[in-house]
Amino acid sequence: MPVISVRKFCVASALLACAVTPFATLRAADTPAATDKPAAENAPAPATPEKPADPDIPIPPAGPISADDSNFFEAHVRPVLVDECYKCHSHDADKVKGGLMLDTREGVLHGGDTGPAIVPGKPDDSLLIKAVRYTDDDLQMPPKGHKLGDDEIADLTEWVRRGAPDPRSTAVKGSSPIYGGVGRQHWSFLPVKPQVIPTVKDSSWCLNPIDNFVLAKLEAQNMKPNPAADKHTWLRRVTFNLTGLPPGDEDLQNFMADNSPDAYARFVDRLLASPQYGEHWARYWLDVARYADTKGDPSRREDPRFPFAWTYRDYVIDAFNRDKPYNQFIIEQLAADRVVIEQARRTHTSVDKMDVSSLAALGFLTLGDQFNDNIRDIVNDQIDVTSKAFLGLTVSCARCHDHKFDPIPQKDYYSLYGVFANSHPPPFVWQLPFVHPVPRDAAYLAYEAKVMALVEREKDIKQEFFAFRRTGGKDAEKRRELIRKDIILNRDINDVECDDPGAPPRSCALIDVPRPEDYPVLLRGEAENKGDIVPRRFLEILSPDPKHRPEWRHDSGRLELARAIANPANPMTARVLVNRIWQEDFGRGFVDTPDDLGNQSSPPTHPELLDWLATQFVKNGWSIKKLQRMIVLSQVYRESSGDNPAYADTDPDNRLLWRANLRRLDFEELHDELLDIAGTLDLAKIGGKSVLLSSADFATRRCLYTYVDRHNPPELFTQFDFPNPSVPSGRRYATLVPQQALFLMNSALVMETARKLVDRPQFQDLTDDSQRVTFLYLEIYNRLPSDKETGVCLDYIRSNPGEDSPVAIASERMAEANSIAAKRRAAIAAKAATHLRGNNAFQPEPAGAAFLNRTPVDAWTKLADGLFQTNEAIFLN
């Protein structure tokens, strides 16, 4: 039985690690390139007829399989079945043993002579799981003591527990031996087609061509769009959409009083020019880029922190605010270093005299999980994030075999592997380039002295290791002592880079190896099973001339890859980005799977509109802001969310866009809304180091700046559907769980927001209770209350006698409360600091240092707190 092999990995397995291979010592002979498919996977039509199903055991029809389940099967189940089971239980077997066929879904469910192989959802009742566990001496698979590894048994068990989702089916003569779906003729692989703007019956409804495309679909179904939402609703919708914040009082008053024809357009232009636009939209891209402030699984001696991850986050914010052309955005994130070097050569300028701030963009590649320094997994992660983010393709599914659904052969995977395997980050953090020139002031000189001392410590430890090895390395205690020294050194290095006031911001950059080379295909993904060496080049399916693809011989090939992706003729790139933007503006994209527009995706709801927008996007210089402006100024964006029972029956998912979709605010939007209403949100400071969830800064900075631990993200975030920071996430899947409501009911953040809201002078100066209710509604809901709502609120206030003003408490009690609060703050700070250096389970209290007020609340504060609990406060209409 072989040890755990790389064949087990695909997209879904990017969270796991294999054998440790230090990045710096990787050799060409140790790394990847493509294989011919295993014989079982290229099987012809069955020569041995499958046993007919027992009529007493009906096989349920295959249902839809989620992308996650499909990836899990391809990464963890199919390789085991192919390697360990097919030789005795497939159509290619010389003799099918026990009548059991495991190479099709139907064969697994039908089973063999002893009955069904599995009971979906019940691994303990499944014969297959019983057999691989070796719990029965008379039923053991594989036989003769060749028991599967524990991880493989666990994978099969998990597969059955999930209900045994299986994308395979009985082989049909004449079907494609490689790809599912329609293969190369899939819509997203075809060129973007110029579109004629449709003619519609109700042309007066349309504000721009987007509306024509949407209305044409509706009219074809004899449907009409909802009427426009009122100005209050549109204002709140567009302000949250573009900035992630509620509209301010002045915005509300000015917009409601402005009846000019261009009132909507001028307001949108102001939002797009706001620095908060870049902060908000950067968060969506950071999800796609699997951004985090820690390494996930670093090597055993490394500190888990990325000291300068935040410089990549700030690059993304700046890129959105500057409306950096998207094609340039792509190229910089994949090859900013090569662009700088190319410009230096062309202009005969020294690199140290050039603006190298764009190097921060390379955090896109370098800030993923470090997989215990396993180079193969690191490169696989880089291929995965690049192909999903820019191309909407799951290329890493071809790591162990040809892609099962899309026309991506394994050789193409290892062509890209060669691109990324020829680049690596500098070995030491102080070798990373500065984001901006650094003045050699006193703070920097003090920092530099600390770095030099650490360099000397590092040299001394290396000398000690060398001397230890010369003595034979037999002393276990000495070995442990040296390892401890190395671990402490790594921690101290990151302490200086993270905390020293003179530490200059650095870019998490890559450098190419001096002599780049091509890599072999790893047959079935196994490191010891090498196939042909393949050249570095672009994907065949997306190349203009697949038969004559240029090979990238100079440097790593990252710049050539970036330019191939950003080529206007590439049919995927613009479509993928337009789909992402549309999704965030409407709550749902043209395609539901923004990271996968391949054969597994559903057809776009409005293919003509998608292509028209993709064409306009490229024509307008790849400008995301111009695309955004066009979308939010359309009539379809103005629609109300009101229900229409007849339409809801015809189109329950609103795929035709006859109404606006309701969506819950992301946690970042909810957090920022609360701080904004409380008047504590600091909008003046853009960028900078990440802040701890437990710190007082969490109560003043936008949630975007919260420190994200990849190994242990804040529980509060995950309760509100924050995505896994170890994998690209183009879409957050909203859940409704009790913890979300409990947070709003019990959080000190919410209560302090209510307290600060009613303490504002604008509220305190009001003498009429009805005006106070109106003030709260305008601040929280951005609209006026109805007479009924005002009456209910006033009844609540009157039901709390003696609580119409804050209640003072005795000074002794206040002093005691503050003393307890101070101790609690100190404990939180100590735990949070320890938390950064390890992978413990400590989850600090949100902004614990800022929200420890023990003063009793009055009726108005309780009312404000209650208004925050409603759906209207946390949903976007």
Provide a descriptive summary of the structure in words:
The structure is a single chain. Helix content is 44%, strand content 2%. The chain is mainly alpha-helical. The strands form three sheets. The chain has a two-stranded antiparallel ribbon. It has a two-stranded antiparallel ribbon with strand order 3-4. Strands 5-6 form a two-stranded antiparallel sheet. The two termini are 57 Å apart. Residues 1-57, 170-178 and 803-814 have low confidence and may be disordered.
What is the topological layout?
Layout (H helix, E strand, L loop, with lengths): L66 H19 L19 H6 L16 H7 L16 H12 L47 H12 L10 H13 L5 H9 L5 H11 L1 H14 L20 H13 L4 H22 L15 H4 L8 H17 L18 H12 L1 E2 L17 H29 L5 H24 L11 E2 L6 E4 L7 E5 L23 H8 L7 H14 L20 H13 L4 H9 L2 H4 L6 H6 L12 E2 L2 H12 L36 H5 L18 H9 L1 H12 L1 H4 L4 H13 L5 H12 L12 H25 L23 H10 L2 H4 E2 L1
Antiparallel strand pairs: 1-2, 3-4, 5-6
